[in-house]
Write a structure and sequence with these properties.
single chain, 116 residues, 4 helices, 77% helix, 0% strand
């Protein structure tokens, strides 16, 4: 069992979740059960899957959960793009979050490659 909190990729993805919650709290109320909920679930899925994978016994199990986290990062990236295009977030907020997501995705990919 690995300590997920010690992983830089988990730390960065946790900070991303906090950012997503902060920006989405001002979204239109009509989106509460739609885009707001989906955006938060996608963001939360990244560090959650890293955490769950670290609780598994084998490296292949961990790698499988990292792949799921990577998929959630891709899903979140699209949702943030949609939020930008709907003008729920500014271009500068989108660019900042997108940079973070790209870095997290690269970190996940590297971690997966080391395990497989």
């Amino acid at each position: 069992m690995k300590d997920f909190q010690a992983l830089r990729v988990w730390q960065k993805s946790h900070q991303l979740v906090l950012s997503v919650y902060a920006i989405s709290k001002n979204f239109p109320k009509a989106e509460l059960y739609g885009l707001t909920s989906q955006l938060r679930r996608s963001a939360l899925s990244i560090p959650s899957n890293i955490s769950e994978g670290c609780g598994r016994i084998s490296d292949p199990d961990l790698a499988r959960f990292l792949v799921i986290a990577s998929g959630s990062a891709s899903e979140l990236r699209y949702q943030l793009l949609l939020c930008r295009d709907l003008e729920y977030i500014s271009r500068s907020v989108f660019e900042s979050l997108d940079r973070d997501l790209v870095e997290i995705h690269k970190m996940l990919t590297s971690f997966i490659q080391k395990l497989t």
